[in-house]
Please model this.
Amino acid sequence: MTKADLIVKIADGSGITKAAAEKALNSFVAAVSEALANGDKITLVGFGTFDVATRSQREGRNPRTGETITIPSSKVVRFKAGNKLKETIK
Model:
């Protein structure tokens, strides 16, 4: 499903215009992005939880040359599905 498809679904499901649905979706994405950038955790009961984890530095190999390289530590976004979402996709 693309962003455009999701906007249509939101508009149809809530009885609002596509423009209003797009504005709402963009606002949601911005709010989630800002909260995660600030190190906050977002919990949507029944849907899931978004949080930020730190992936530690590790060794890897260049597949072309076989040379050992150091992969630096980084932050990654994690999502853990809630119970209602898990039940829906079974």
Summary: The mean pLDDT is 95. The chain is about 40% helix and 30% strand. The first strand starts at residue 42 and ends at 44.
